[in-house]
Design goal:
Length: 144
């Protein structure tokens, strides 16, 4: 009997695909963490602007708390009844605030001078030349 056959007997076969996907996800997280840990935090933060620094910190703490959530679930503890749930909600609140700031930063800004020039040029204004020609009688017609 091979090792895979022994592993298949230890848990129900219908969750095999889920476990395989979970293992693959853990491998991806592990690779990402190794990449992040290969660069010192101070060196990484120097390359980022304050908004990007906040995003990095929030993603890091959210990931850590999410992994703790998974750990609690694997230990048979309901994470929904654990303080980690409130912590994740608090982090999400800050993530939304940072997203709002980033959206405001991306939003187009109104150039008041350009807008007033557009409006001024779009509106018809009679000038002295137009007023003069409209007050003179048309040629060819005689007034009596």
């Amino acid at each position: 009997m091979s090792e895979d056959d022994n592993n298949m007997e230890e848990y129900p076969t219908e969750i095999h695909d889920y476990l395989t996907a979970f293992e693959k996800s853990l491998g991806s997280v592990d690779e990402m963490l190794k990449t992040m840990m290969s660069v010192s935090r101070s060196e990484l933060l120097q390359k980022l602007d304050p908004l990007e620094q906040a995003k990095l910190d929030l993603v890091s703490v959210y990931t850590l708390n999410s992994m703790f959530w998974v750990y609690l679930a694997t230990q048979g503890i309901n994470p929904k009844e654990h303080p980690v749930k409130q912590e994740l909600e608090r982090i999400r609140t800050y993530m939304n605030k940072v997203k709002e700031i980033a959206d405001r930063k991306k939003a187009s800004k109104l150039d008041k001078g350009a807008a007033s020039r557009f409006v001024k040029n779009a509106l018809w204004e009679p000038n002295a030349e137009n007023e003069h020609t409209s007050k003179t009688p048309a040629k060819g017609k005689k007034r009596q």
